[in-house]
Design a protein that fits this description.
Largest sheet of chain B: 5 strands, mixed
Structural class of chain B: alpha/beta
Strand content of chain A: under 5%
Number of strands of chain A: 0
Number of helices of chain B: 24
Oligomer: heterodimer
Helix content of chain A: over 70%
Radius of gyration of chain B: 30 Å
Largest sheet of chain A: none
Order of helices and strands of chain A: HHHHHHHHH
Strand order of the largest sheet of chain B: 1-3-5-2-4
Number of strands of chain B: 5
Shape of chain B: elongated
Helix content of chain B: 40-55%
Structural class of chain A: mainly alpha
Strand content of chain B: 5-15%
Shape of chain A: globular
Distance between the termini of chain B: 104 Å
Largest interface: A-B, 59 and 49 residues
Distance between the termini of chain A: 57 Å
């Protein structure tokens, strides 16, 4: 029995603190993934919290034939999709980055280099945010969270072939976006 | 660049997600196609660029928020867990019902009161008021920590509600039905009275909060229920009329209304809490139960709850088994520090307690009507362990009214009318197995006779007037537990048909063996889905101390019965004895 299974058993037996441990274990990873799907940190936080709440309420329906985090991600992505459709349009992830102070500053790096790196990061995030929703979820799960195709297929309830196809298309769209962005930067006058 | 199937393979090749055959195909494609190699490099760069993004951190621990929100979801309903979840009404109906309630004047009044309560609690809650409370949630996962916290935070509301309930109980005792405006004004007056008390120096707490018996009210606190929307009344209105002599509590008479007032106060407190924002739609059913010391030690009550999937937290169940069941003797000191009316209540309650072992416990559970009915049914089937049961539905909650049938007094006084009922039925159905139509007719006739007998006995025993249409459903001291057949195996069944009031109504309307609300077994699809809270007040009583008057005193009072007659009931022969006399 894995650690997660043990914590789940304890939760179902009435020790809610065990579920708190699961929350602590996965909240960071889930947030880092969901924030790229939700588009902003505030929504991402709400989605992550809602996902954990839903997981807690439906914990008895969890079948142990999948990893807990896969099941949790599935809940989170469904929540994120409905949340994104019903809420305000996503704002820049730059705000999230600023709010979370996510990027540690390399003190050996020059100020210009730091600025450039941050700007590049933001351009990449913006490009991800402009992806079609169906591509974005696959790209984020693969590139940000490092999920294998099978896991992505399980989380998004898609055939593996569709995952492969969407990932390719998403990467191609990103490539196009970033090429244009970087080309514009390198053009004289920028 | 045109999308080719091979290009898609290139992307998967980057991720190492190709089969051996596909890898071979891609290798050949790359070796023959420089553009493919360039594309592969571009895709790799994109992948590396995205993967190089710094991690965004949440910066806070969500576990507390998650558990609290989950608890709220469980309590308020929409996120009801998946475990025993009977069929619920469509969401639209539920919202319509909520809206209908919200727009009524009562709903507006309560909403205002709830808002004020919430603000008061928020402004002045302190940790010292947190007391233990047993709360069992039927559904898993229980997540009880959050429940306990939320309840402790709002505990003080019960104090004012208790004072209000005491006035209500006094009205019942005097047989006076106050009009709604008077009730509202009285509540306001009580509120102000408590505010005045709060302004005075508070008495020192005799016990640390954790050691106080659960049922005892806390010391006066400034947090109060907001007055209801009613004209202000003088403070004196809350006081007992001077021209009404107070009946001293007699041994065996138990001054049951005082204990009920306390329990009702707790329930009213719960209702206040619900009005304050958390669960808005769950009235409290009160169940008094006399339990033998042996059954208490063996955890018989917990076992019954567990059998109905009403889960008590291990810690609390263990705490009860470990002796929290035993009432602290120091509670008497607290009684001495209470203000006048509450002190009298507790003094009378103590008079009652002298007839028991002096131990009691309060268990608050939340369960579906089916679970509650099944629990009460189990209590009814264990008269050797649960000597007497008194069920007090929340006023105006139709689905709870039928549960009165589970009320029964102790065995000596509780067998009252069952024998005559059975004889009457047997006389009406001499063949033993009549046809359905004959059965309905015979049982209806028998029931009418029994109802007449019950009505007469109720009157003689001092239970007061009972509305004609509800004769059968009025609680009676001599009424034994009844099981109602509904044609389902394992839950009564037609063969064990014993008609009570709801069934008598059903018979009268041609619905013999039909499903009556609240009578279905837990797994029934026809039962109401909403959960409500049940407050079990368990009193440890030795069977040898359980005299007939004492037992009869915990039988519930009819809502419309003048309570003054209850006082007189002790002087009259017990209803059961009357029943026996009546039947020779």
């Amino acid at each position: 029995m894995s650690d997660d299974d043990l914590l789940i058993e304890q939760t179902l037996a009435g020790r809610s603190a065990a579920f708190g441990e699961l929350v602590c274990k996965y909240q960071g990873r889930l947030f880092n993934t969901v924030v790229h799907v939700a588009g902003n940190a505030e929504d991402a936080r709400d989605i992550v919290q809602d996902a954990f709440v839903q997981a807690f309420l439906k914990l008895e329906s969890f079948r142990h034939n999948a990893a807990f985090y896969t099941w949790l991600y599935r809940i989170a992505f469904n929540t994120a999709i409905s949340h994104r459709r019903s809420r305000r349009p996503a704002v820049s992830i730059e705000q999230a980055r600023a709010n979370t102070n996510a990027e540690p500053v390399d003190t050996t790096e020059g100020a210009d280099a730091v600025l450039l790196r941050k700007e590049r990061c933001q351009q990449v995030r913006d490009a991800i945010a402009r992806l079609k929703e169906e591509y974005r979820a696959v790209v984020v799960l693969r590139e940000i969270d490092g999920c294998c195709y099978e896991t992505i297929a399980e989380i998004l309830d898609l055939p593996i072939g569709t995952v492969r196809s969407r990932l390719y298309r998403g990467r191609m769209q990103l490539l196009q976006e970033l090429k244009e962005t970087f080309a514009a930067e390198e053009t004289p006058g920028h | 660049m045109n999308d080719l199937p091979e290009h898609e393979l290139l992307s998967a090749h980057l991720d190492g997600e190709l089969t051996a055959a596909e890898e071979a195909c891609v290798g050949q494609f790359l070796s023959e196609n420089p553009a493919a190699r360039q594309l592969l490099d571009d895709l790799r760069n994109v992948s590396v660029t995205v993967q190089a993004l710094p991690e965004l951190r949440l910066g806070e621990d969500l576990s507390g928020h998650v558990l609290r929100q989950a608890e709220r979801a469980i309590l308020t309903g929409p996120g009801k867990p998946s475990i025993p979840e009977p069929a619920s009404p469509p969401p639209t109906r539920r919202w319509q019902e909520l809206f209908r309630r919200a727009v009524t004047s009562r709903g507006v009044a309560w909403s205002g009161a709830a808002l004020a309560i919430a603000l008061l609690i928020m402004l002045s809650s302190s940790p010292e008021r947190q007391r233990e409370r047993d709360v069992a949630l039927a559904p898993k996962p229980p997540a009880r920590d959050a429940v306990a916290t939320a309840e402790a935070e709002q505990q003080d509301v019960a104090e004012v509600a208790e004072l209000w309930a005491a006035d209500e109980a006094r009205d019942d005792r005097l047989g006076v039905e106050a009009d709604p405006e008077t009730k509202s004004a009285r509540k306001e007056a009580v509120t102000r009275e408590a505010l005045n008390r709060a302004a005075a120096p508070a008495p020192a707490a005799a016990l640390p909060p954790s050691e106080r018996p659960v049922a005892l009210p806390p010391p006066p606190k400034p947090e109060l229920a907001a007055p209801r929307m009613a004209p202000a009344m003088p403070l004196d209105m809350a006081e007992e009329p001077p021209d009404v002599p107070r009946q001293p509590a007699k041994p065996g008479q138990l001054a049951v209304e005082e204990a009920e007032a306390r329990d009702n106060a707790m329930a009213a407190g719960e209702l206040e809490r619900r009005e304050a924002g958390i669960p808005a739609d769950s009235p409290v059913l009160l169940v008094h139960c006399d339990i033998t010391p042996e059954a208490a030690r063996e955890g018989a009550f917990d076992q019954i709850l567990a059998s109905q999937q009403i889960v008590l937290h291990d810690d609390q169940a263990q705490a009860r088994r470990a002796g929290r069941f035993a009432r602290s003797q120091d509670a008497d000191r607290e009684v001495g520090e209470l203000p006048g009316r509450a002190k009298r209540q507790l003094a009378d309650f103590d008079a009652r307690e002298r007839h028991s072992d002096g131990a009691f416990d309060v268990v608050l559970v939340e369960a579906t009507p089916g679970q509650v009915a099944a629990t009460l049914d189990q209590l009814a089937q264990l008269p050797d362990q649960f000597l007497a049961v008194s069920v007090k539905p929340a006023p105006g909650v139709a689905s709870q009214q039928d549960l009165r049938r589970f009320s029964r007094a102790a065995p000596p006084a509780g067998r009252g009318l069952e024998e005559p009922k059975q004889r009457l039925r047997a006389a009406a159905m001499p063949d033993g197995q009549p046809k359905p139509a004959e059965e309905a007719k015979a049982t209806e006739a028998a029931e009418k006779q029994v109802d007449k007998m019950e009505q007469r006995l109720s009157s003689q025993a001092g239970e007061g007037a009972v509305p004609p249409g509800r004769v059968g459903s009025a609680p009676m001291a001599g009424r034994g537990p009844q099981r109602f057949g509904n044609g389902r195996a394992g839950y009564g069944g037609a063969g064990s048909l014993q008609l009570g009031a709801p069934q008598a109504d059903a018979v009268a309307s041609g619905r013999v063996n039909g499903d009556a609300k609240g009578l279905a077994p837990p797994e029934s699809e026809s039962e109401p889905a909403d959960q409500y809270r049940v407050l079990f007040v368990l009193r440890v009583v030795s069977p040898d101390l359980m005299t007939a008057p004492a037992a009869s005193s915990i039988a519930p009072a009819a809502p419309s019965a003048p309570a003054a007659d209850i006082d007189g009931a002790a002087a009259e022969p017990a209803p059961a004895a009357e029943a026996k006399d009546d039947n020779g």
